[in-house]
TrEMBL record:
PANTHER family: XYLOSYLTRANSFERASE OXT. It is found in: Endoplasmic reticulum membrane; Golgi apparatus membrane. It comes from the Eukaryota. InterPro entries: Glyco_trans_14, XYLT. Keywords: Disulfide bond, Endoplasmic reticulum, Glycoprotein, Glycosyltransferase, Golgi apparatus, Membrane, Metal-binding, Signal-anchor, Transferase, Transmembrane, Transmembrane helix. Pathway: Glycan metabolism; heparan sulfate biosynthesis; Glycan metabolism; chondroitin sulfate biosynthesis. This is protein xylosyltransferase.
Length: 315
């Protein structure tokens, strides 16, 4: 699929506001963007600055990311993209060159990522540190190339403006003995010997949640400065991406600056499988909670993305 398109400095959005896209090249898919709502100039939502860290690994996730950027891209935001180091060098070069004229899109390719392994923690921390070093944003949203917004940029900015300084996480306590837990509260093993047997880094009570989180700038600074050496040993016992940020968050001062929130809609099927299902039918999204900001595994260029744009992104 051809990604080539002509960039435009300013684009008028659905609600009459102006969207500054600078030198960003809107793809053919993105020509449908006119129905999408953006913050009005000078509004509280317009003052929100976001950092997006996005992980891609092949042509399909690149296309998926491009279509997401067609929706969320504005010159005021920051975008840090990680291309898996195992991808062919010419693919990394293509992605880098494609965005080289867009000053707020930065492409890194430092780590070969294996999902659920410690390498994903390494890659994420590099992305977060890069974003922190640039700074100037309110919230850092972690995505993969298969993610697609199910809320308009206006709705996303409104949520962030109403929750300034908060981190969004759906994490819950994890009990080493696997006793029954409810959604937001659980049990931990109070015996330190028990926690040590289970390899809890720094002997901390464990918290588990979705990898797809939205982190405040202050917590992201704390996270990248936090020593995670013990987590590399612990990674053999768990899917590290579901534990390390969550445990560090809820064992720090920042647990008081957290909003319980699921950022990403993922269909795991029933009974839940090891891998999320592809989202291909609109009824899957119509049944989901109205709180999610993004959905994962939405096929690039597919009818579901168009359905989302027509029914959800005009608000």
């Amino acid at each position: 699929r051809d990604l080539t398109a002509t960039g435009s400095a300013r684009v008028y959005a659905n609600n009459g506001s102006e969207r500054d896209v600078g030198h960003y090249k809107i793809s053919h898919f993105g020509k449908l963007h006119g129905a999408v709502s953006y913050p009005a100039v000078g509004s509280p939502e317009d003052k929100v600055r976001l950092a997006y860290v996005i992980m891609i690994h092949d042509a399909m996730t690149l296309l998926g990311m491009q279509e997401t950027l067609d929706i969320v891209y504005e010159t005021k935001h920051l975008f840090v993209v990680h291309v898996d180091a195992d991808t062919p060098r010419n693919f990394v070069d293509f992605v880098t060159q494609y965005y080289e004229d867009v000053s707020n899109i930065h492409v890194l390719s430092n780590v070969s990522v294996q999902w659920g392994a410690s390498s994903i923690m390494t890659a994420e921390r590099l992305l977060y540190k890069y974003a922190v070093d640039i700074g100037g944003w309110d919230l850092c949203i972690t995505l993969c190339g298969n993610a697609f917004p199910v809320k308009s940029p206006l709705q996303i900015a409104r949520l962030v403006a109403q929750n300034k300084g908060l981190t969004f996480s759906d994490a819950r306590r994890v009990d080493p003995f696997d006793r029954e837990q409810n959604r937001w509260e659980g049990y931990e093993c109070l015996d330190k010997r028990c926690r040590k047997v289970h390899g809890s880094p720094d002997d901390l009570p464990l918290f588990k949640g979705s990898q797809w989180m939205a982190l405040s700038l202050d917590f992201t600074r704390y996270l990248v400065d936090y020593s995670v050496s013990d987590w590399y040993n612990h990674s053999v016992e768990c899917c590290i991406d579901e534990y390390y940020k969550q445990t560090i968050l809820y064992n720090s001062y920042f647990k008081h600056k957290t909003r319980p929130f699921e950022l990403m809609f993922v269909d795991w099927g029933w009974p839940p499988s090891a891998h999320p299902n592809l989202l291909t039918a609109s009824d899957q999204l119509s049944r989901m909670s109205d709180t999610f900001l993004f959905a994962r595994k939405v096929i690039p260029g597919g009818p579901l993305r168009r359905w989302i744009m027509e029914t959800r992104l005009q608000r």
